[in-house]
Design brief:
Elements: H1 6-16, E1 23-25, H2 32-45, E2 47-52, H3 60-71, E3 74-79, E4 82-86, H4 96-103
Parallel strand pairs: 1-2
Antiparallel strand pairs: 2-4, 3-4
Keywords: RNA-binding
GO molecular function: RNA binding
Pfam family, one: CRS1_YhbY
């Protein structure tokens, strides 16, 4: 499990402010395919945003917690219908954000 201090979380919230949501969850809800897509994207980007649409019956906090547990990430923020997740990449060429986060520890 990843633990972040306050400065690291603040940095990631600020960094994610201009990010566009990569995924939208609709009426199908949380599926294995959705989790797999999030895992593939977070491996390359380290920080992602996703939105739950109004036609979904899912609860944002529950979904964000399930996804974070499945992918081994951490929830940076949930606000409205948007969640921001972070996980350092295992590949060095994709570790741009995590290197900046590590400097703040």
């Amino acid at each position: 499990m990843i633990t972040l201090n306050k400065a690291q979380t603040k940095f990631l919230r600020k960094y994610s402010h201009n990010l566009k949501p990569l995924f939208q969850m609709g009426k199908l809800g949380l599926t294995d395919v959705f989790i797999e897509q999030v895992e593939n994207a977070i491996e390359k980007r380290e920080l992602i945003k996703f939105v739950i649409l109004q036609n979904s019956d899912e609860d944002l906090d529950d979904v964000a917690n399930k996804i974070a547990d499945e992918i081994g990430g951490v929830i940076i923020q949930t606000i409205g219908s948007t969640a921001i997740l972070y996980r350092p990449s295992s590949k060095e060429k994709h570790q741009e954000i995590s290197q900046q986060v590590n400097r703040l520890s």
